[in-house]
Specification:
Mago nashi protein, Mago_nashi_sf, zinc, 3-stranded antiparallel β-sheet, binds zinc ion
Length: about 230
């Protein structure tokens, strides 16, 4: 509902007819409907407001060229992995229940979660206002803003022998209002022998190193010096 500001005292002081200022916002801010405000202001305030609007050149912009409103605060962030592979390839996360352990930073207040939080493909939470779904929706503990993150399943890639010792994107996340700042690989990876195709399931990379023995190829296998970085897409 429109609120009227009390201007009686000002009117008396300036002995002038107050100007009516009307404001409407249709950007669907916080999923609200059209936001409308009204206020009565002095002529000098009205002139200053007009000057600010003219200076911003906003009236020269074309609505048709404006970015779609639902893209505000949304960004894709890629998780890149780097490792040294010894006689194995096709290193990949397995299954819908694979846990991506992340630390998240709120884009509004900068708060970083202390604990590791995991997100999984199998989880889907509806976003307010019919804006689709996300793997996780959470309220920031500090500023209470509701943020979300979605695992983009089609972007999940394996890390192969030809990627050895180079950063490669293994997954992309769609983030609204937050961004991942740290990643902790844990259990749930699989890989296979380069020549033998022997499957190694349930590889745990928490220690950043993993070793085993390929009976078929009669050679040792391993994954070493696992590191990561985040890249904005
Ligand atoms: Zn926050």
């Amino acid at each position: 509902m429109a609120k009227r500001l009390k201007t009686t005292k000002c009117m008396g002081r300036f002995r002038q007819k107050p100007r009516k200022l009307r404001y409407a916002n249709n950007s669907n801010y916080k999923n609200d409907v059209m936001i409308r405000k009204e206020a009565y202001v002095h002529k000098s305030v009205m002139e200053e407001l007009k000057r600010i609007i003219d200076d911003s050149e906003i009236t020269k912009e074309d609505d048709a060229l404006w970015p779609p409103p639902d893209r505000v605060g949304r960004q894709k962030i890629a998780l890149q992995l780097k490792a040294t592979l010894e006689n194995v390839t096709n290193l990949r996360p397995v299954g819908e229940d694979f846990r991506w352990y992340l630390k998240m930073k709120c884009g509004n207040c900068g708060e970083i979660s202390e604990k590791w939080q995991y997100i999984r493909l199998m989880d889907s939470v509806a976003l307010k206002g019919g804006r689709g779904s996300a793997s996780m929706v959470q309220k920031c503990k500090l500023c209470s803003r509701e943020n979300s993150i979605e695992i983009l399943s089609s972007t999940i890639k394996s890390y192969n022998v030809e990627d050895n010792e180079k950063f490669k994107t293994i997954v992309e996340f769609e983030c609204r209002g937050l961004e991942p700042v740290d990643f902790q690989p844990q259990a749930g990876f699989a890989a296979e022998g380069v020549e033998s195709r022997t499957i190694f399931s349930d590889i745990n990379l928490q220690e950043k190193d993993w070793t085993d023995y390929d009976e078929k190829a009669q050679e040792s296998v391993g994954i070493y010096e696992v590191t990561h970085q985040f890249v904005k897409c």
